[in-house]
Design a protein that fits this description.
By secondary structure, this protein is mostly helical. It has five helices and two strands. Strands 1-2 form a two-stranded antiparallel ribbon.
């Protein structure tokens, strides 16, 4: 199974119908907590100016969060200023039909690059395990990426 993937923009279950999130209580933690990690986008190292601007934005978000907390905002309230680049971890289960739907939504070239980084290897793994179910998605999305 694929582990340690980071998808900072929510999660794929938001567009799926029959997906269950698995895990304990989903509470809010403090931003200063070590489990809060910001994920650098793949493109960031290509341009030093863009990297500088991105790092400034991450720093500004952290300062805003801390200031809100120091002034009495709850973690839930202060979280609204946190960046999309904040690491998010989820566990989800779905039936095979729903996985096919998720792959059709999240493996397209128009999908966010970071969700494709998660979904394409997952599609490859599921195709290896049960090829007859995922042949169509594999041909559509992975054959094209291997050119």
């Amino acid at each position: 199974m694929l582990t340690d993937f980071k998808f900072p923009y929510g999660h794929p279950a938001k567009t799926a119908r029959m997906i269950e999130r698995v895990g304990g209580e989903y509470g809010y933690a403090e931003f200063g907590d070590p489990k809060f990690i910001v994920i650098e986008p793949e493109w960031i190292n290509k341009d030093p100016t863009m990297k500088f601007l991105w790092l400034e934005a991450m720093d500004g978000s952290e300062r805003a969060y801390s200031t809100l907390r120091m002034n009495g905002a709850s973690p839930q309230q202060a979280r609204s200023v946190l960046p999309n680049s904040l690491k998010t971890e989820i566990v989800m289960t779905a039936n095979l039909r729903e996985w096919k739907h998720v792959f059709r939504m999240r493996c397209q070239k128009a999908a966010h690059p970071q969700i494709r980084e998660i979904m394409l290897p997952l599609l490859k793994e599921l195709h290896e395990r049960i090829p007859v179910v995922f042949d169509e998605e594999y041909e559509t999305f992975l054959s094209a990426t291997q050119e």
